Amino acid sequence: MTSIDKLIAQYATDVAFVAEREPATTLADFTQQLATAADLLGPSWVDIEGAEELDTAVVYLTDALDSTDDAERAVLVSRAARYLVDVDDIVSEYRLSV
Questions:
Q1: Contact (CB, 8 A) for 11 and 87
Q2: Residue range 29-54, pLDDT digits in tens
Q3: pTM metric for this prediction
Q4: What is the pLDDT of residue 50?
């Protein structure tokens, strides 16, 4: 399973670039920045292939934030991580378009 800290460390810099913020250090901030990035990368703006999966990750992370059960939270974060595997490629494509 992917821990919250590992997830943030792996993706925060790329997500923050798109969201035009400093990299998140908390799950709440990361989730908020990811939601912003998903909106900017999706069909309404630049429409980068694969960006629609970021919305799914946001749903899982929002549920993880709302969960009071540590085991459930860990499962939700791991599920979100599966939808973030292409973040590097997505953000690389975005960097080329800006």
A1: yes
A2: 999 999 999 999 987 667 788 889 99
A3: 0.92
A4: 87
* 50 Rama class: left (phi>0) / alpha (psi -120 to 50) / beta: left
Ordered by start, the domain boundaries in the chain are 4-97
Tell me the residue type at 90: I
> Using CA atoms in the order 6, 10, 13, 14, what is the torsion angle rounded to 10 degrees?
-140
Residue 93: which residues within 8 A CB-CB, separation 6 or more?
Answer: 48, 49
Token pair 């399973």 is at which residue? 1
pLDDT of residue 87: 96
Q: Indicate the DSSP class of residue 42.
A: S
The pair phi, psi for residue 47, each rounded to 5°, is 55, 60
| DSSP letter assigned to residue 23 | P
